[in-house]
Amino acid sequence: QLQESGPGLVKPSQTLSLTCTVSGGSITTSYYAWSWIRQPPGKGLEWMGVITYDGVTVYSPSLKSRTSISRDTSKNQFSLRLSSVTPEDTAVYYCARATSVFGDYSDFNRYNYWGQGTQVTVSS
CA 89 to CA 68: how far, in whole Å? Predict the structure, then answer.
């Protein structure tokens, strides 16, 4: 089970921070990959980045300069930080698990567990 948590409202130019708490399995289990995915209103899913079971991070080229994903293995959590947000970053944010580090992370059929999603609005 995956559960997102974090502020629902962020001001422009600030940093968005979300945490995904994982239960029922370890984030260090081979060969899982743990992604952040978002869906802006009226648009499709957008893959943001991933942290693998062994701590390797990969980011979407379009968001790489503003995105950081980290993990706390003692708490079985991984986190997202997105800096310099604008209203265009308003979206439902999801954490999700892929069962393999191999393949295209933006292929959403690869993810077999998802959090329920959390709405984040960027507004002053």
Answer: 15
